[in-house]
Amino acid sequence: MNYRVRKGRIEDLPGIIDVIKDAKELFRSSGSTQWQDTDGYPNNQTFIKDLAENEVLVCTDEDKIIGVLVVSFQEEECYKDIVQGQWLNDNHYAVIHRLAVKKEYYRQGVAKKLLDQAEYVVLEKGIFDIKADTHEQNISMQHLLESYDYTYVGVIYLLRPDVLEKKRLAYHKIIAHKRNMEKAILLIHGFLSDMTDFDVLIPHLETRYDLVHRIVLPGHGPENDYNYDKFNKEDTFKHLTKTFDDLHRRYKEIDVMGFSMG
After folding, report:
1. Would 261 be classed as within a structural domain?
2. Helix, strand or coil for residue 40?
3. Domain carrying residue 202
4. pTM beyond 0.85, yes or no
5. Which side of the chain, N or C, has fewer Cβ within a 10 Å radius?
6. By the 8 A CB rule, do 256 and 189 touch?
7. CA distance from start to end of the chain
8. pLDDT tens across 49-96, in order?
9. How many domains does the chain have?
């Protein structure tokens, strides 16, 4: 298997629609009303808009598109009226939409690769909360989200007029809790203050602190086959310094008591 996740392009549209057709057929055959709406949602127009807004991730096997996921940074109006529960917080958030996998690739880790990459994309924007919703009959999606530490938080109702069933189960995940951010800040600060040897710094980032290179080097996590040897050393230190300054401004009130580098 040579699965890769990348940003979607407009020329990917036919492959994306093929994936969506498989998902629609799966829902139809299972008796679910999800994606069976009279307006054909999600359709070509849906993904043309998503692609234009640079919100689409695709998973490929060689040149074949086998999975799709949309990461939106536009807050959902229908999320304001959650019932039978509440969101974990009121922070700014990203939203996972339109996750689908081609039929012959079901249960082969494609959805998980897309969700993994989505978290990198969200962290790169400096956002630590992801929300999602799914149909009450979509048990596999519910299990997938729960396996990725998404918390079921209540029920929302879609606002689109042509939806056959508007009720959706709502999920919320906090990617990096504040305490983890504190550790990352202190770790970065320690590297910048005490280490001048780049060759000492990089092994720590690479082998010991996945959270750090998810936050410090966004877009260069393990899923992107990041090559530390080829990364420009001077640019890395500049990036680390800027990242620490940005994080410190955001979390300057943190309590560092009790933190251990061990």
Report:
1. no
2. coil
3. 178-250
4. no
5. C
6. no
7. 36
8. 999 999 999 999 998 999 999 999 999 999 999 999 999 999 899 999
9. 2
